[in-house]
Amino acid sequence: MEEFYVLGIIYLAGILCGGAAIKFITLYNKSDRSNKCINNIEKLTLYNNLTNLPNKISLESMFNAELLAKDNNFNILYIDVDGFKIINETLGYTIGDKVITKIANRIKAVVDKEGKLFHIRGDEFALLITKDESKENLCVLADKILDSMKKSFVIEKQEIRLTSSVGIACYPLDGNNLDLLLKNANIAVQRAKESGKNKIEIYDHSMNEKMNKKLKLINNLHKAIENEEFTLHYQPQVNSLNGEIVGLEALIRWESPELGTVSPGEFIPLAEETGLIIPIGDWVLKAACNQAKIWQESGNINVPISINISTLQFLEDSFVDKVIDALNEADLEPKWIHLEITESVALKNAEFTMRTLDRLQEIGIKVALDDFGTGFSSLEYLNKFNIDILKIDTSFIRVIGQEDTTVTNSIIVLGKSLNMSIIAEGVETDYQLNYLKETGCDVVQGYLFSRPVPSYEIEKMLKVA
Fold first, then answer.
1. How many whole angstroms separate alpha carbon 290 and alpha carbon 461?
2. DSSP element (H, E) containing 370
3. Which residues fall within 8 angstroms of residue 340, CB to CB, at 6 or more apart?
4. 243-260 pLDDT, tens per residue?
5. 408 vs 414: CA distance, rounded Å
6. pLDDT tens digits, residue range 197-208?
7. Cβ of 311: how many Cβ atoms within 10 Å?
8. Residue 110: domain span
9. Poorest-confidence range of 344-348, 374-378, 429-433?
10. How far apart are the C-alpha atoms of 164 and 84, rounded to whole Å?
11. Total domain count for the chain?
């Protein structure tokens, strides 16, 4: 009779979550089966079951072994796929898993001779380099990893383009143990993402201060949602020919009791990163609808309000229902609300976008494509999407009178040919205004007319008008 234990390993999305030991008693010895079972358990314990790459437990083991074997400098390259969450949310976890597997194989092919690649969790990998390398050489290797991601992935006839960010930390300068080293390499990754993604950052100790500030901002952002600390300011949209205010863009502002005035450029990207943009966006939608109704009942202001919609908001299955609920709660007709999405949002999932835009059109809501010309500018999809308004990005307006304006002219001609209204944002000079008039731009918006201002300032403007 033989007794032995089998360790049941519990995995979720390729991540080791726990285990349980189960006692087995056999009447005779099955040593080869036992060995095979042990080998399988070892594989489950030490390797990611999705990519077959060694996992964090393996990394700890190798790191400690290297420390015992020799006194040497180590380097960690922490690799994080940019925006991978959207792949799972829009295409599903089955496709997401296939993409992760392809990503792992692609990175491994690049770094195999340079160090050992580990699959830490989800879309995060770590490369351990046990030889002493200069920071310049580490950056060259990291560049190769970024370049390897530029080629698209094709899964079930779906073309997927992704980028990655890399953080670099060095032992013992940036941490005297593996956990600290990984933590600081991950901080460097987050810094790379904040700098625009698809970048490389080498850890330095000042990043800890920035991370602490970020955590403080996240905590205060949660409080701001709970306590409704936000307000809306409005920027007029003006008829280019007669100067009449024909619309207003709603722009969120945050005055924190603890932090003071926080710039949207600081808290909006963080809200998108943490998913807090969804409750914030829901609040903006309801607040803008309520304000539009208040103005209409006062009899002074009857112009549509444009609302910016984030990627995460737009890709929610319940998004259109939320829009309908906000309109119903305010008792507001749909024609008084315009929704603004960007090109990148529209093309995340083209089929989903077309269905959503069709539903919005059925309701009677107009949709603007914001920042046009800065993203994919896919003419094929632009023709298919139910888009009512094209908004020319500020970058094209800024160069009027200084550089070639062929692109600006082309956008206006294109929009007109598709029966779209054209709005130019960022208009700051009379020269820009006159140029846009001559080229057929319908509506202009910018500091030449007004900065975004509180609702009572808008009321003063329209009373004077």
1. 20
2. strand 366-372
3. 249, 306, 307, 308, 309, 367, 368, 369, 370, 391
4. 999 999 999 999 999 999
5. 10
6. 999 999 998 888
7. 18
8. 56-204
9. 374-378
10. 9
11. 3
